[in-house]
Amino acid sequence: MAPEHAVTVLLDDALVTLNRAVGLLRRRQVPVEGLVVSPSGAAGLARLTFVTTGDPAVVARMAQQVGKIVGVRDVRVASPGSLSSPSEVAP
Amino acid sequence: MTEVLTGAQIMCRTLVESGVETLFGYPGGAIMPFYHALPEYPTLRHILVRHEQAAAHAADGFARASGRVGVCVATSGPGATNLVTGLATAQMDSSPVLAITGQVPRALMGRDAFQETDIVGITLPITKHSYLVPDVSELADIVTEGLAIAQDGRPGPVLIDVPKDVQNQKAPYTARPIPARAAVEGGSQTVAAVRRAADLIAAAQRPLLMIGHGVILSEACEEVRALAEKTGMPVITTLLGISAFPEGHPLHLGMPGMHGDVEVNRAIQQADVIVGIGLRFDDRVTGNTAAFAPRAKIVHVDLDAAEIGKNVPVAVGIVGDARDVVRQLVEAVATRGAGDWLGEIRGFARRRAEQFRGGLSPETILASLYAATRGRCTVVSDVGQHQMWVAKHYPYQRPNTHITSGGLGTMGFAVPAAMGVGLARPEETVWAISGDGGFQMNMAEIATMVQERLPVKMAVFNNGYLGMVRQWQQFFHGGRYSCTPIWSPDYVKLADAYGIPAWRVEEAHELPDVLARATAEPGPALVECVIEQEANVFPMIPPGGSLSEPIEAEPAAHGA
Questions:
Q1: Count of H-run helices and E-run strands, chain B
Q2: B270 phi, psi to nearest 5 deg
Q3: Nearest Cα to A3, choosing from A51, A49, A55?
Q4: Cα distance from A43 to chain B (closest Cα, Å)?
Q5: Tally of domains in chain B
Q6: ipTM field
Q7: pLDDT digit string (tens) for chain B, length 560 residues
Q8: For residues B23 and B12, what is the distance between their CA atoms, to the nearest angstrom?
Q9: Which domain does B210 fall in, by range?
Q10: Is residue B543, in this structure, part of any structural domain at all?
Q11: B120: which chain A residues are within 8 Å (Cβ-Cβ)?
Q12: HSE, side-chain direction, 13 A CA sphere, residue A90
């Protein structure tokens, strides 16, 4: 079974940004479970959290694609035994 | 100085102060306040198209030819939805386009009002960014930021949806400085990666350079040429990389992929190092990725980190602006020659002998066009067989003189896009080359050219078929030409109805005179080339096939 990764996205607390981020997951056919949107604690920013499965390199690329969205501030992927951000997994 | 302006006036003022001079658009109910304000800003030239799709393509053509943001304007509902194909085209080809759409007043939004559509929602996957303006106080900042986002980094389309009542709202306005374009940051990883790439090139026996649209976008053509000449690496240009390297250069090979020449694709399959710059290794380039370049270590340079390793495995990935990275590469690589490799590649070439009615082969037409314009011409092609012939046979010498819809493959692109290209390059002849299918999609824009005095020259390759689809039907569907024969009007009479000169060419010997006369026309002109009905584009890699297995001849005649 493909490993699970917990992805945390810090993004502008605006529906259009959230819509764009979630739409990307659908469009790129990212398997998603347990998607949660919650306050981030920082003014104007929300936190989108979900679990995905797949090859770490594929998940890292998805994180880069989410990270390109205007209004997304940070993307972190927690994989079994590791914690990395897109800048750390980029080639 | 602070003034009180309407939202519509603020939109115009911000565009003017950001350096925008040309808009392509079509008025309608929800964008009327903007059009009411427009005459107060005479430096904004508005081109009234005949369909909003053309406005988006023209803005795209303007952007590609000028390197600046192309702006299109439409009303809500059908006006906005008609922009969709043009925005998707711009998104796929990384073109900086700003679309401004009117929206129904805020009080009516969400109530299925007349001409209400959720255009922000509709265009989310095909725009780099989008805004629904909530209040006039944010309008100027949004327009300024939208223009910047469209062109900074990897360019792309941005949409700004402005409710009609926001256009009528008043607010204080103060002129603001245009923000400087964001600099691309070179990572600390770049230096080490450039070193590794230089080492790979030094050790290679069969290296290749593959260059794409990113080289044109970052204006890295000179640097790429220096890299090729210092290392002797033969150069392959993708469909959108064509013209980034002179066709006549001894190191130039041609276009790869589905319709790439045999020697180009064989070179890829034999290469031991491929340096790819500003391309995304799209499926039309790679064929079956599992069989792509099986011997090669790939160095991939791209501004967009998410592109590196997306389609093909990469030995060295370098995230950065092509010009900056290639400059570093030129310094890092050792001088070397092409050795026997170039001769080996030339030895892969196959010559084809084909007959064309009236001698009117695509090569002959395009060579005549080059001669008639003395190469001082930008060619805008549409999508289909003629697009591949233009890509393979027109002898491009100057950067960014080949403009086409690559990623989305949008038929109907050439004619409206050429209007934008012409406005960006008023000193240069612009030829739009289309097939009879694509031309009929947007030929209503001839009226725009006449009304707005846009001297676009149009060539129609008329074979009476949707030729590329017919070719696939011949090769892969047993020759069943389902719905691909296409009737055309009399194009000479059509042109006459619009009051523009036109010629029908059926023999090759007519070409030099007709193309010279059309090019010399001060206004738009049309040339119909009646070509072989069932000519095919060869060679062809079947969809999903390996670059090693091209189709090089007609399939055996199919049974009844």
A1: 23, 20
A2: -95, -15
A3: A55
A4: 19
A5: 3
A6: 0.88
A7: 799 999 999 999 999 999 999 999 999 999 999 999 999 999 999 999 999 999 999 999 999 999 999 999 999 999 999 999 999 999 999 999 999 999 999 999 999 999 999 999 999 999 999 999 999 999 999 999 999 999 999 999 999 999 999 999 999 999 877 777 666 656 667 899 999 999 999 999 999 999 999 999 999 999 999 999 999 999 999 999 999 999 999 999 999 999 999 999 999 999 999 999 999 999 999 999 999 999 999 999 999 999 999 999 999 999 999 999 999 999 999 999 888 999 999 999 988 778 888 899 999 999 999 999 998 999 999 999 999 999 999 999 999 999 999 999 999 999 999 999 999 999 999 999 999 999 999 999 999 999 999 999 999 999 999 999 999 999 999 999 999 999 999 999 999 999 999 999 999 999 999 999 999 999 999 999 999 999 999 999 999 999 999 999 887 765 43
A8: 11
A9: 188-347
A10: no
A11: 16
A12: 27
Annotated catalytic, B164?
A: yes
- Find, among B268, B276, B315, B272, the residue nearest to B292 by Cα: B268
Q: Which amino acid, one-letter code, is at B119?
A: I
Residues B198 and B167 in one domain: no
The residue count of chain B comes to: 560
Which position has the token pair 């012409």? Answer: B422
Chain centre distance of CA A52 = 9
Q: Which fold has domain A4-13+33-89?
A: Alpha-Beta Plaits (3.30.70)
List CB contacts (< 8 A) between B316 and chain A: 91
User: Residue B549 corresponds to which tokens in the numbers above?
Assistant: 């297995």
Cβ-proximal residues to B193 (8 Å cutoff; 6+ apart), any chain = A91, B316, B317, B318
Please tell me which residue in B3, B114, B189, B533 is annotated as part of the active site.
B114
